[in-house]
């Protein structure tokens, strides 16, 4: 009897450990998700395979129902949601900061940037590091007269969306000529795939400037500048200033909201939620109710216990209002119309 009972436990454990989920999308949260999913497997036996392919590709794959969930730094638009075969939901999992990282030999102190200067660099109007607009923001700093090699994303990117969303709010010229989006008609720049690709261009190219999620700058030991916020304060990205961007923001019921250029006086201005996107009703294709339950468990864990991994990896935890909205959304999941 005892042997039979133990065998039963072993079979249950084997069944649980064999469960797996797949996701694809944003590179912005990839370092965080890699840690989260490794810890989740250790705790539950469930494997989560997440492919860092860019937010645009992740959105495409969830629309095609080839993954359990997508990762995206920008919420899907109303127009895109209308093309989905069924209702899609968004939940935020973290707040991250997009920073201007650069490679300037001999410059050790963090440079200061305004939104206008960043926009003018990416518009191709500011071409050298010793341009008077940059020099005026950084008195006393000897900046070499190197040409600026502009690094940007070549793939559909939520990081690009966040960066361009910010630039559109602070530069009317950027808004009218380039605008906001995952993929842009760039005036200038060397394209690379993923945050790691842009960081690689910056790291290997003296004179380069690129926008990357904070953790990629830190992992590659790239200096990054402070950015003037809406209150006129120059703020260096970190967990605190990034989380301040969400303070006072009304989080809508579906959690789709921009927090760039926050009015908070202490906020870092190029910050964003990063999202997981999934179907409300999980009965489609060959999906089983067990798979649906596993996804619900994962999402619940990511927005509660899993939040402990955010700050050590330079992401901010979800504020309570966002976490509560995420909980309500997760609890609305169904399988064949029946509540999970």
Automatic annotation (TrEMBL):
Alphabetically sorted, this entry's keywords are: Phosphate transport, Signal, Transport
- One Gene Ontology cellular component annotation held by this UniProt entry: ATP-binding cassette (ABC) transporter complex
The record's InterPro entries line, in alphabetical order, gives: ABC_phos-bd_PstS (IPR005673), PBP_domain (IPR024370), Phosphate-bind_PstS (IPR050962)
What does the record give under GO molecular function? phosphate ion binding
Give all residue intervals belonging to the PBP domain: 14-304
Q: Which residues form the signal peptide?
A: 1-18
Q: Where does the chain cross the membrane?
A: none
Can you tell which superkingdom this protein's organism belongs to? Answer: Bacteria
Family of the protein in this entry = Belongs to the PstS family.
Q: Mind telling me what this protein is named?
A: Phosphate-binding protein
Q: Organism source for this protein?
A: Deinococcus humi
